[in-house]
Specification:
Layout (H helix, E strand, L loop, with lengths): L4 E6 L1 H7 L3 E5 L6 E3 H11 L3 H4 L4 E4 L2 E3 L13 E3 L3 E5 L6
Parallel strand pairs: 1-7
Antiparallel strand pairs: 1-2, 3-6, 4-5, 4-7
């Protein structure tokens, strides 16, 4: 992975919406982080079908669940997406 990239993993409906299981995204040169809402918008711009998925999906940044505003679900601390992070887009899963 190059020095200004973020690994994105897509699960369930997010994988269906993008047509891919994962991708590596570059952030602008000179930046080392991006706010979660801006990151989500970047994903939606690249994959418009994700817009519907994000109405119910959750993000996990390095295995920590985060809301759409960038707050950890456990503890409420604000976080950003940083170079080298792994971000998973996880829609609700159902079935049996």
């Amino acid at each position: 992975m190059s020095s200004n990239t973020i690994q994105v993993l897509y699960f369930a409906g997010a994988r269906d919406a993008t047509g891919i299981p994962s991708e590596t995204l570059s952030i602008p040169s000179g930046s080392s982080e991006i706010a979660v809402p801006a990151f989500i918008q970047t994903l939606i711009t690249q994959h418009p079908k994700l817009s519907k998925v994000f109405s119910t999906a959750i993000l996990a940044i390095n295995n920590q669940y985060v809301d759409h505003e960038g707050r950890l679900l456990e503890g409420g601390e604000s976080v950003t997406v940083k170079v080298g992070d792994e971000v998973a887009v996880i829609p609700p899963v159902s079935g049996g």
